[in-house]
Structure prediction request, 476 residues.
Amino acid sequence: MILSEVLKIKLSDILAEDNWDDELDNFADDNHNTIIRSQHEWNAGVASLEKLLSLMIEKNENKLIQGIVISSPTPMMKDVKLVSQLETVVFSSFHGEKMALMPCDFKNKIQPISRLSFIDVSLDINDILNKEQFCLVLTSKFTCLILKSIDKNHNSKFQFSFTPEIIKKVWLLLKERMIISQNYHTEYLDKLVNKFISINPNYKIITQFTRYLLKELEKIKLVEINQIPRQSQSISLKKTPLPPYPEFELLQALTHEIRTPLTTIKTTTKLLLKRAKLTPDIVKYLELIEQECIEQINRMELIFRAAELESKPIKQEQVKLISTSLEEILNQTIPTWKKQAQRRNIILDIIIPHKLPQIVSDPAILTQILGGLMEKFIRNLPSGGNFQVLILPAGNQLKLQFLSESNFNNDHVKCLGKLLLFQPETGSLSLSYDVTKNIFHALGGKLTMKQTQDKGEILTIFLPLGNSKNCINQAV
Prediction:
């Protein structure tokens, strides 16, 4: 590969092309918030890795190398005894400054930690890897990559992966950088890395890392709260209106607690699916588990987002409306809808024009709310029922109609506060009609619903058509 091409490849490109990366799901209103959030997640990730290493690495006096820590732009581990058991490699474009950048022993802040010997790999000043912050850990029990980068939307993003295939590709990319810089440690490190590179981690290790990560993030939040001056806090409380319903904080906590174990299960399932010699039945069951986890995670995200929108006046909530391709959203979501319908033996008929015009919306929220509506309809239909989705132009709007042959029985539905509806017969949760209507209003659209004796339930959504001149970055 040509030198200039190598220097353009980022670690985040590897995670993207493999379509296998875990990231902490959060809703951020602007770029500044994503920078702060990803930095907090990065700090929590480093601390969690150090705890995991402390748990897995045997601390012995003979100082045998039990693993490798490769990071950029500075060394990451602070535990002196732990560092003595690991080979440390640092990639950066700094020259003659790295000694000062070593982590310090917090018990003696004046002196740096005792082990200062590490392998220094210099990056070309034009290398795009300089824009990423990473820590790659390889041991006899697990391999892991944590990464902080900038995505295509210029938002700061934290990701992590325990997948051996990704770790291998990451190492090969870093090895190419070492070859380019003519580093004489390349051969030695390559042999050392090969001892650990193919390790498939036990799911308990991934679970433990996730727990550490969440605890570290909670610590950061508590520190931020405690650092707020009491006087400023009291003024803020006076100016901040109370949420329109008391269950907001409870919902916020519950959605977080539910999503976390589901994400761990989804991650473990993906790891199992990558193993060889799985029977077709096992693959089928694992894929079913993965799909159920994804659907539940999406439901929790939608509930959280709806609560967030409802808890603030619409004018204060910056819903970013941009020119959006509904066709692209549908291409991504329709396969999932069909799988949901197939599992419940529902006949799903989707009628779409040959070419759909651009609309004005927030694509992330629109994807979530359409998925939530589709799931609600499919769950409420009896096995063998019919459900139709019809999309057609309507003047300066696009009309989406959900036609169900089953009437929604309000007598069997319980309201959980102002936000949620619970159907005891199916055990399903869904957003209330008023909340769903408010979300579409925030998206610049309109929602209507009616029930008829012969046609069942008809839900109609109107979304505004858009053009690039007047619909970019509008806020409701």
About this structure: The CA atoms of residues 309 and 317 lie 7 Å apart.
